[in-house]
């Protein structure tokens, strides 16, 4: 049944953002699902020279880490040329730092290296523009969990189709993330827009999202102890004016594996578009969902 | 601002299903929102001769109850002719019994009495057919809570747009209703269809919906003591294969007021269509939602 898949070129992933937690999780997911991990990756300042990624089934891959500077371009170029000379599709994955988003995107464009951008922040307009202007294959998505993306798309559609359907309802939002996350959940902020359309009346202010960052409150919210260092839990509650009707929507993620799986889906999707020479070049996770090319 | 609304004919509601709990709640909602309640209503066998509906702001309306038999037709016809002679739009509301659905619909068609059918059960195909064949204005909806209808429509859309987006996820459904409700929630059963499309794989069986009908289990589920005699609580849980991601959707209704409000929305919607002489005759709650003619 899977014979047609074998026809595709094999894929090499350059996992920029190693040796971060997300980078490691992604590199492992790539290996688990049959992608090759390039032996070089961009990283931040003051990082080790290399990192070893363990495979689930034993064995490991060592990746040389290249900090900011002129070496970055040279080494990425080498990795790209090496992969291409072997008939492979090379795709960069970016889970680095908000301050590196635009610099890295410009480098990918300069090298003609297709990329999946999972890093949030930076100048998003400039990011979209540099890719669009240069016709590079890229997939940009602030949230790589495909189910959350589907749920967001659904709420967006409901809000546009039935604005005011929850007229007179009150709204409460609580989100919990590992203590290292300083800002408010981007997903929760996006949901506020849709929920405000649904309820009408006085808009809910994103400042009123309840952020949990202390372990005691997080455990009271239901987060298991072993997930305190990496989780993304969200609860949205809509309550009718008289209190007789309550709607509650939750999406609770422990760890980073589901995002890493989504990244591999995104890389495979982009590689398939490159392989077929698609006209469209710039994608997001909705395109991946619609294509149904998911595991 | 509300001047254009005054141009509409006023509306008389025949609240068939009095003196049941739902009928009373609807009659009260009609009076609260400025509709007239007809002084006659169809009821079941062995019911009292009349019922008094209390208004929220004092005062009351007495309604004569007509059991099954030849009197039903005569009295409904009188109510219809009386309302029309006064330039009013008369609409029947049906919250009776599954066994009366088709008989009542045929009577409404015979009299040319537009109706809102909230009673579930009976032969649904025959119900739709008799209305369509005769071009009578009618609104048929097994669930009158507009927010639940919007949520169902959203899940339906998500399932059609992104089938398999929740591939590998497990599903659990728990619903709680007052102990008098013998069958499984129709809303939960409808949701199973959408959720099965989303998760793919082995389909979830409606037989596996967990039904709570005992007060102890209901209160453990969170139902307040004062809502034990009338509530509709639903929780749908989707969990990823590795357990790291959980989605939970809840819609919890205490009492019957939100349904009664939805019925009044439906009656007002249908009266507006009659008033403007719309080409389309047969509607459901999605039409009401889309029209945005809601309170």
TrEMBL record, chains A, B:
The keyword Nucleotide-binding does not apply. Transmembrane segments: none annotated. Gene3D superfamilies: Dihydrodipicolinate Reductase, domain 2, NAD(P)-binding Rossmann-like Domain. Residues 14-144 form the Dihydrodipicolinate reductase N-terminal domain. GO terms for biological process: diaminopimelate biosynthetic process; lysine biosynthetic process via diaminopimelate. GO terms for molecular function: 4-hydroxy-tetrahydrodipicolinate reductase; NADPH binding. It catalyses: (S)-2,3,4,5-tetrahydrodipicolinate + NADP(+) + H2O = (2S,4S)-4-hydroxy-2,3,4,5-tetrahydrodipicolinate + NADPH + H(+); (S)-2,3,4,5-tetrahydrodipicolinate + NAD(+) + H2O = (2S,4S)-4-hydroxy-2,3,4,5-tetrahydrodipicolinate + NADH + H(+). InterPro entries: DapB_C (IPR022663), DapB_N (IPR000846), DHDPR_bac (IPR023940), Dihydrodipicolinate_Rdtase_pln (IPR011859), NAD(P)-bd_dom_sf (IPR036291). Pfam families: DapB_C, DapB_N. Its EC number is 1.17.1.8. Residues 149-289 form the Dihydrodipicolinate reductase C-terminal domain. The keyword NAD applies. Pathway: Amino-acid biosynthesis; L-lysine biosynthesis via DAP pathway; (S)-tetrahydrodipicolinate from L-aspartate: step 4/4. It is an enzyme of class 1 (oxidoreductase). GO terms for cellular component: chloroplast stroma. Signal peptide: none annotated. Keywords: Amino-acid biosynthesis, Diaminopimelate biosynthesis, Lysine biosynthesis, NAD, NADP, Oxidoreductase. Belongs to the DapB family. This is 4-hydroxy-tetrahydrodipicolinate reductase.
